[in-house]
Write a structure and sequence with these properties.
The chain has 188 residues and is an all-beta fold. The chain has strands spanning 2-3, 12-15, 18-28, 36-43, 49-55, 59-62, 65-76, 79-84, 90-94, 109-115, 120-125, 129-137, 150-155, 160-164, 172-176, 181-185. The protein folds into three domains: 2-62, SH3 type barrels (Roll), CATH 2.30.30; 66-125, OB fold (Dihydrolipoamide Acetyltransferase, E2P) (Beta Barrel), CATH 2.40.50.140; 129-185, Nucleic acid-binding proteins (OB fold (Dihydrolipoamide Acetyltransferase, E2P), Beta Barrel), CATH 2.40.50.140.
Length: 188
């Protein structure tokens, strides 16, 4: 058992019978009364972020989780198949546990977070940025670099991304998987 003094960002705890990750926390010591800890908790199964206040010193149940490297193999309906990079074991993950499934391409490296006690996969995280090739976009016009106007582009995974007007079909771009937005053009 741990206390609120042990809180760290990313720590997984059991809260109201559910597994929650601490997104952020703040220790507060008011002039009157006891100290408390304000937290933002992300429910691992539903993805909802909720705010909760703990009294300082309250015992909490910390859950052990392990982050393991996996490689994406293929998709079958809404189930994604991954292979462990060290043991070559395969595991299956539902689409709703992946943070950005629309940017997942074959043989891509991801991290799958497992509950250490039950060996069940909790969620799958893509890298913060992925390089994807533009398969279709309207042609750009020379000199369209002065404004911040964006146009639709389809990437190799089939996802739609808003890109600047000067991006052409066949170019590689870097996409932020957390927001789904264009980041930069990849130099080849």
């Amino acid at each position: 058992m741990a206390t609120t003094a042990d809180f760290r960002n990313g720590m997984v705890i059991e809260h109201n019978g559910e597994l929650c990750a601490i997104v952020e926390f703040q220790h507060v010591k008011p002039g009157k009364g006891g100290a408390f800890v304000r937290t933002k908790l992300k429910n691992i199964t539903s993805g909802k972020v909720l705010q909760h206040t703990f009294n300082a010193g309250v015992k909490i149940n910390v859950q052990r989780v392990e982050r393991r490297p996996y490689q994406f193999l293929y998709k079958e309906s809404d189930t994604y198949h991954f292979m462990n990079m060290e043991t070559f074991e395969q595991t299956f993950v539902n689409e709703n546990t992946i943070n950005a499934p629309q940017f997942l391409k074959e043989s891509q490296q991801v991290d799958i977070v497992f509950h250490a006690d039950t060996e069940t996969p909790l969620f799958c995280e893509l890298p913060a940025y992925v390089d994807l090739e533009i398969t279709y976009t309207e042609p750009g016009v020379k000199g369209d670099t002065a404004t911040n106007t964006l146009k639709e582009a389809t990437v190799e995974t089939g996802a739609m991304v808003k890109v600047p007007l000067f991006i052409e079909q066949g170019e590689k771009i870097k996409v932020d998987t957390r927001t789904g937005e264009y980041s930069e053009r990849v130099k080849q």
